[in-house]
Design brief:
Blueprint lengths: L1 H7 L3 H21 L7 H13 L1 H7 L5 H20 L3 H17 L3 H15 L1 H6 L8 H16 L17
Helix pairs in contact: 2-3, 2-4, 2-5, 5-6, 5-7, 6-7, 6-9
Length: 171
């Protein structure tokens, strides 16, 4: 964003423009993505649902990175589908890269990545273990999360949080 601000300024529109552009590009990229197991018609339906998703449209007008999160998670899911159809280290590395970008964009993407990773281990255990080198792509993300851990943990303190903290009985 720093470079973007230097070129386009700090106006409301200038700060929202990257999300708007990504929100427009996401459905187009989903149509172009070579996702194994999805026909061109399936990709068009996936792109249409993504492009017409009300929350996605809302996020595209936001100055935050939620539109990027939608894009990265969609490409992560496409890479995951490709990985499951023909597991190898290259496809695992592509999936790991998109997963890392998703998680670095928003920590909640960790849940999607964890579920997909566990599914990969369950559905293709030998291939998953054989492609262990792809897991090295997660190292920068893990280091960055470690750097931010103290800041993230501050939001769990009642005097900092702007929401009521969950207690065991709330679950």
């Amino acid at each position: 964003m720093h470079a973007w601000q230097g070129i386009f300024g700090l106006s409301d529109f200038a700060l929202r423009a990257p999300s708007i552009l990504v929100g427009i590009a996401t459905p187009a990229l989903l149509m172009l993505a070579r996702t194994k197991g999805l026909s061109p018609a399936d990709r068009i339906v996936w792109a249409a649902f993504t492009g017409l998703w009300i929350d996605g449209l809302w996020y595209s007008a936001d100055a935050r990175c939620y539109a990027f999160l939608v894009l990265f998670c969609a490409l992560q899911t496409s890479a995951f589908a490709n990985l499951l159809t023909a597991p190898n280290t290259r496809r695992a590395a592509i999936w790991a890269a998109w997963t890392s970008l998703s998680i670095l964009t928003h920590y909640q993407a960790l849940f999607l990545g964890a579920v997909q990773g566990l599914m990969f281990l369950a559905l293709a255990p030998r291939r998953a273990v054989a492609s262990w080198k792809a897991g090295l792509i997660f190292l920068p993300m893990v280091v960055w999360m470690g750097v931010h851990a103290t800041r993230v943990l501050q939001f769990a303190r009642p005097e900092v949080a702007w929401y009521d903290l969950l207690r065991p009985q709330d679950l």
